[in-house]
Amino acid sequence: MSQTSAFPMFGNGGQFHADGKPTTSNKFNLNALLDFSTLQPRVQTHLKNVYSCLLLSTLCATIGVYLSMAGWLNYPRLAIFASIITTVWLFTLDFNARTQTKCFGLMSATALFTGIYLSPLINLAIDVDPQIVMTAFLLTTIIFVCFTLSALLTQKRTYLYLGGILGTGTSIMFVLSLMNLFGRSQLLFNVNLYLGLFIACGYILYDTQLIVERATRGDTNYVKHALLLFVDMVDLFVRILIILLKNSQNKNKKNNNR
Predict the structure, then answer these.
(1) Which one of 61, 124, 209, 210 is CB 3.0 to 4.6 Å from 111, fit for a cystine?
(2) Alpha-carbon gap, residue 7 to 12, rounded angstroms
(3) Do 30 and 99 sit in the same domain of this protein?
(4) 72 plus 138 within the same structural domain
(5) Any coiled-coil ranges, and where (predicted)?
(6) What are phi and psi of 4, to 5 degrees?
């Protein structure tokens, strides 16, 4: 007689010895954690394309940071406008077999320009403490992966209801930014910074399930979907980097005042 474990992520949870006593093994089961069998095969294939495109976009952004810091493409303000143009161009194209290469090229260009206009912030962080950038990247990766798995392993699309809350939070952040533009308040800046951090995490949950829902309905434009996640990831990275940078600067000021 076999029984099913109530904790499938731990191995041997539902097995019994010959004497009828249950086993007590709590071995972690990674296969159960990465079980996406609840998703349709075409959705799984679509997600593989999305995250492959996201990985290549991250690589392009890294190249953009390197090129800018090396002095070859050190035009961050121009890169902002260039990224806006390529993004708008990408969203105006119909995704099909003929435009697939062009869409991917525009996505790569957007990521490259993003890395270029992020380079001044990254360069500032390196001047303060070279470890800050790597720490921010590792934290961003861990948070992104955890929230992505949470969204994918949830069978019910409950995170789609976060859309209204996230939209309201984004509007509040916009108002706070306008207020801080004239008031120059450190309190408003901190509230906007940490509120934006929570909203960025929320958008990872929301956009991931939105991509799954759209793929279920036949939307296979993995380039646009990867761009949504790329924007979420960059927003999360920037906010974590600024928080670590502020903490490091405050720590250095305290050490200098002693």
Answers:
(1) 61
(2) 10
(3) no
(4) yes
(5) none
(6) -95, 135
For 250, other C-beta atoms within 10 Å of its C-beta total 10
Taking only the tens place, the pLDDT of each residue in 20-77 is 544 544 554 555 555 556 677 888 899 999 999 999 999 999 999 999 998 888 889 9
> Quick one: CA dihedral 199, 248, 112, 46, positive or negative?
negative
Whether residues 28 and 70 share a domain: the answer is no
What's the pLDDT tens digit per position in 100-128? 999 999 999 999 999 999 999 999 999 98
In the numeric block, which tokens belong to residue 227? 């761009």
Instruction: Indicate whether 102 and 151 sit together in one domain.
Output: yes
Quick one: 141 and 21 in the same domain? Answer: no
Residues 173, 79 share a domain: yes
Q: Name the pTM for this structure.
A: 0.82
Residue 181 confidence (pLDDT): 83
Query: Residues 157-197: pLDDT tens digits?
Result: 788 888 889 999 999 999 988 888 887 888 888 999 999 99
Co-location of 68 and 139 in the same domain: yes
- For 79, other C-beta atoms within 10 Å of its C-beta total 22
Q: Residue type at 67?
A: L
Instruction: Kindly state the tokens that stand for 243.
Output: 């928080």
Looking at the structure of the chain, the number of domains it has is 2
Half-sphere exposure of 46 (CA within 13 A, CB side): 24
C-alpha to C-alpha distance for 51 and 226, rounded to whole angstroms? 7
Same domain membership, residue 117 and residue 6: no
Res 248: pLDDT: 86
Q: Which residue has the higher pLDDT, 2 or 107?
A: 107
Tell me the CA distances in angstroms from 40 to 13, 37, 148, 212, one per residue in order: 28, 7, 17, 10
